[in-house]
Amino acid sequence: MSIAGVRYRFSGQLGSGLAVLPLAALGSALLCGLAYGYINVYNPLIYIQALVTFGTCWLLGMAVSRAARSAKVRNPGFVAGMSLLAGLLGLYAVWTVFEFAFLQRFAPAGVGMTPSLATCLVSPGMAVNFADTLAQAGWWTLGRSGSPVSGILLWIFWAVEAACIVGGTVYLAHTDFVKGVFCEDCGQWCKETQDVARGELSTDAQMLAGLKEGDLERFAALPPPLTGEKSYFRLDQRMCEGCGNLGTYQVHKIVTTVDKNKKEETKTEQLTPNLLLTPDSVQALGGLISRGKTRAQAKKPFAAPPGGDTPAEEAPPAAPEA
Ligand SMILES: [Zn+2]
């Protein structure tokens, strides 16, 4: 028997998102623009820029996703649209603040007053002219080549950077937002409990296919990993604390590798979306939780309980059917 999971779906309601999310997009875009614009001017090292680009996407994405949570938005499409807005506003703010900070630092004295930050922020045409002028000369070098990166190469670099900021923001906002589960009856988000049960890692194709369907019977056929083992399958759970009627579960694959410097790296792969708990899967999940997350270095090999039964000490003797 298998218990394939049924995917949880959002209701599509907007909550108070129409009022809250544009403000969150604008506010986070301005903050990120201020930080990124200045860092670009004072620290034009390419690897720091890459880090700052990622940080900017993360902040913009999280700002939109978390604002959507608190505004009780249950519409991933709307959140994607708002994160696109945040990404574009963020990109615009980055460029205009960069323009302001660049002119403040490098404009030759005596040429005239440099524009104020407010003027830069409300003048898109000026920002385009500034970028065009800057691209002709370039202003930073790559490696030890000596000559600044300029012209079409610089525009390509900027285009990639822009795509990373906008695309990264939408991606991060979406992946964070769709982790949530909302109880429409109680009007609240479900509480997440990570790592409620574990299963030993398996490379068996059928097993993996079953786990990707959220089949908890298959999961129960895997023994818990040995204590101290850092690679395993992990079960997470979300439950409505208001009514206890809505719950979901999710399967993750956790793989920890050690490089030659003995540095550990852990990767978490999501195998299923949020799957609704049914009476069958609640029972299977209960058995998985009660068996414990890990097993000691036992002398005798683990035997999967027949029919997915829970361990004897956890399960009361079956009562005769009424
Ligand atoms: Zn509820």
Regions with little confidence, pLDDT below 50 for 5+ residues:
308-322
What count of domains describes the coordinates?
Answer: 2
Number of helices: 9
- Rg over CA atoms: 26 Å
Bound molecules: zinc ion
Largest sheet: 6 strands, antiparallel
The protein's oligomeric status is single chain
Which range does the strand content fall in? Answer: 5-15%
Q: Could you give the count of β-strands? A: 8
**End-to-end distance, in Å?**
25 Å
List the defining traits of the structure above.
2 domains; 9 helices; binds zinc ion; six-stranded antiparallel beta sheet; 322 residues; alpha+beta; disordered C terminus; elongated
Describe the overall structure.
The protein has 322 residues and is an alpha+beta fold. The protein has 2 domains: 17-177, no CATH class; 190-296, no CATH class. The protein contains 9 helices and 8 strands. The strands form 2 sheets. Strands 1, 4, 5, 6, 7 and 8 form a 6-stranded antiparallel beta sheet that branches. A hairpin with a 4-residue loop joins strand 2 (182-183) and strand 3. The chain is elongated. The model is unreliable at 308-322 (pLDDT under 50). The protein binds zinc ion (ZN). Zinc ion is lined by residues 183, 185-186, 240, 242-243, 245-246.
Task: Tell me briefly what this model is.
The chain is built from 9 helices and 8 strands.
SSE layout and pairing:
Elements: E1 6-7, H1 17-42, H2 46-70, H3 76-106, H4 117-121, H5 124-137, H6 151-177, E2 182-183, E3 188-189, E4 191-200, H7 205-212, H8 216-221, E5 232-239, E6 247-258, E7 264-270, E8 275-276, H9 279-290
Antiparallel strand pairs: 1-8, 2-3, 4-5, 5-6, 6-7, 6-8
Helix pairs in contact: 1-2, 1-3, 2-3, 2-6, 3-5, 3-6
This protein binds zinc ion (ZN).
Zinc ion binds at residues 183, 185-186, 240, 242-243, 245-246.
